[in-house]
Structure formats: structure tokens, C-alpha cells
Design a protein that fits this description.
With 334 residues, the protein is an alpha/beta fold. It has helices spanning 2-23, 50-62, 85-94, 105-114, 156-166, 184-198, 212-222, 234-237, 240-249, 259-263, 274-289, 311-316, 323-326, and strands spanning 37-42, 72-77, 100-103, 120-125, 145-149, 172-177, 201-206, 227-230, 254-256, 268-271, 306-310, 331-333. The strands form 2 sheets. The protein has a 7-stranded mixed sheet, sandwiched between helices.
């Protein structure tokens, strides 16, 4: 009896030892690495940022990442309440995400204020990030931020030239102005530097929430603006169709940064491809997940700027687009 108990004890001990060894090793079919979890902090809504998100996911897929399989993404959207961005950024920090993708300038600032250690990748910043104080330099950002810069603030003079070529007798150009967005400083600086040589006057229209948009168009027409520039603030970038419809309603030639505006019925756009910018931002995410430091990853700039023109909208506004402008267009929508 005693011998039988001893045999059982030995068998049990051997089984326990084998289990301990197996538990410390990888089982067949088990993933070797933990699935990384990243945050996506954005101004506006998921619907408004949909084309940018799809560009980012496409970039991840090209690098071998599939959401829900070998990478997890925690999304946070401000829903046009940018005062919530610090709270949303703090949520992502508390979740201990591996990095944060910031979509929109206010989101980039909120992420920077929330953490100095978790890497931040900007999907596309309209202004020069050095001027706005987000990074030390484009070549060596320093700190925990890197990503894509759109540099659209440098296109102010070209935008005004195009509008003057298209709108006969243009004297006054209105511009949307959202004071809390630090992008607007460099944008206005570029435009104000260009207006004297072109013989134009600039009219600021304050737009802070979606409900301000129609009132801004009414003010522009009442004050005899001949054209309007709607820079890349997320408030308007998330609503290209709404801005296009209002521009037609008030018969005001309008230009934005993004081609989606022209596809939605807007007159003109001049700027980089936002979808491509977010696709390229995925490469920064990949490098950081593999151990690179944001401080050492140079900010990337657009490789080209696209001019989109909608001829149908031009006809509706009673405008003739000069051949000199059409010759510069990346795409003309009939």
C-alpha cells in the first residue's frame, strides 16, 4: 500500500514538472509576441476622419499589420468638442498604449501635453511644426513626437494667385479663422505677406463650431468678399460637402486644402494628398514599434501638391477657368 502511494506521488511529481516546463515554453500555434495596442486621437468624428483613417489602415496593411489581428487600435474622437481632447489623450495614456497617432493640430498639442514619454506620430500637420513649437527641427524632432507635416501654410501666396486668376476683379478674399487652432498663425502670416503685392485685402471670419459656417458665408457675401479660403482646420476638413454646398448657395468661389472638397462639389483645392499622408504615417508607427525613437525619426513632408478644379461648379458660379490654371491642374472634374 505504501509502495503504491509512492508510485502515484512520483507520477504526479513528474507530471507537474512537465507542466511547469511546457508553461514556460511557447505552445504550438501560440503567438510569440504580444499584440501591440496603439491610440488614435482625432479632432471631430470618425465619419469626418474616415478617409484619413482608411489611408492609415492601408499603410499599416502594406507593412503587414491588420487591425484586430496583429495590432489593436483605441480610437478617441473629440466630436467637435476640442476641450475634450486633453481628457481623451489622458485616457489613452492611462491605457498604456505603445504610441499615439494624433490626427489634427489640436489633437497633436493635446497628446503632447498628456505625455512626454509615449511616442506620438502626427498624421498630418497643416503648419510648420517647428513654428508651432511641437518639434525642435524637421530633421531631428527631439522629444517624443514625429510624423507627417503637410506644410500647407506655405501655399498662401499661390492660393491667392489662383483665385485672382479665376475671379475677375477680385479685391477682397475672406478666410475662415479658428483662434484656438495654432495652425492659423502661420497660415495667416503667409496670406498677409502675399496680399499687398497682389492688390488684395484679407477678411477674417471667425468659425469655431459647425453652426458658425453658414453665418460666416453670409458675412462674407454681405461684406462683398469675392472669394473665400477655408484652410485645413479639422472643423472644415471634416465637412467638405457642407462647405461645398454653402459655397454654391452663397455663390462664393471657395478654395480648400483637400481634394475631397472638389470631389464633393467645391471649386478649387490646392494641397497635399491627406490620404497619402496618413498612409505614410504608418511607416513611422512601424519603426517605433520596432524600437526606433521618435526624436531620431525625421518629420516627413509632402512629395507634391495637387491642384483640383471642378469645372461644373465653375460654370454654376459663372466663372471661366483660364487655360493657364487648367494646365497646372492635377485633375479637372467636368
Amino acid at each position: 500500500m505504501r509502495r503504491h502511494s509512492r508510485r502515484q506521488f512520483l507520477r504526479g511529481g513528474l507530471a507537474l514538472a512537465a507542466f511547469s516546463l511546457l508553461s514556460g515554453c511557447e505552445r504550438p500555434g501560440q503567438q510569440a509576441a504580444k499584440v501591440p495596442r496603439i491610440g488614435f486621437l482625432a479632432v471631430g468624428s470618425r465619419e469626418g476622419r474616415a478617409f484619413m483613417i482608411e489611408g492609415f489602415l492601408q499603410g499599416l496593411r502594406e507593412l503587414g499589420y491588420v487591425e484586430g489581428q496583429n495590432i489593436a487600435i483605441e480610437y478617441r474622437f473629440s466630436e467637435d468638442r476640442n476641450d475634450r481632447l486633453p481628457e481623451l489623450a489622458a485616457e489613452l495614456v492611462n491605457l498604456k498604449v505603445a504610441l499615439i497617432v494624433a490626427s489634427g493640430t489640436p489633437a497633436s498639442f493635446a497628446a503632447k501635453q498628456a505625455t512626454s514619454t509615449i511616442p506620438i506620430v502626427m498624421g498630418g500637420l497643416a503648419a510648420n511644426p517647428v513654428e508651432t513649437g511641437l518639434v525642435a527641427s524637421l530633421a531631428r524632432p527631439g522629444g517624443n513626437i514625429t510624423g507627417m507635416t503637410l506644410m500647407t501654410s506655405q501655399l498662401g501666396g499661390k492660393r491667392l494667385e489662383l483665385l485672382k486668376a479665376i475671379v475677375p476683379g477680385l479685391e477682397r478674399v475672406a478666410i475662415f479663422w479658428n483662434p484656438p487652432n495654432p495652425t492659423y498663425g502661420p497660415v495667416l502670416k503667409e496670406l498677409e505677406a502675399a496680399v499687398p503685392t497682389l492688390g488684395l485685402k484679407l477678411q477674417r471670419l471667425e468659425v469655431r463650431v459647425p453652426g458658425d459656417l453658414e453665418g460666416a458665408f453670409k458675412t462674407a457675401t454681405r461684406q462683398h468678399a469675392g472669394a473665400l479660403i477655408a484652410p485645413g482646420d479639422p472643423l472644415v476638413a471634416n465637412r467638405p460637402r457642407m462647405v461645398a454646398d454653402l459655397a454654391l448657395k452663397y455663390r462664393l468661389p471657395t478654395m480648400m486644402d483637400i481634394k475631397e472638397f472638389v470631389v464633393a462639389g467645391g471649386l478649387l483645392s490646392l494641397g497635399p494628398d491627406l490620404v497619402d499622408s496618413y498612409r505614410r504615417a504608418a511607416s513611422h508607427v512601424d519603426k517605433i514599434l520596432k524600437g526606433a525613437k521618435p526624436a531620431d525619426l525625421p518629420m516627413e513632408q509632402p512629395t507634391k501638391f495637387d491642384l483640383f478644379v471642378n469645372l461644373k461648379t465653375a460654370r454654376a458660379l459663372g466663372l471661366t477657368i483660364p487655360q493657364s490654371v487648367l494646365a497646372q491642374a492635377t485633375q479637372v472634374i467636368q
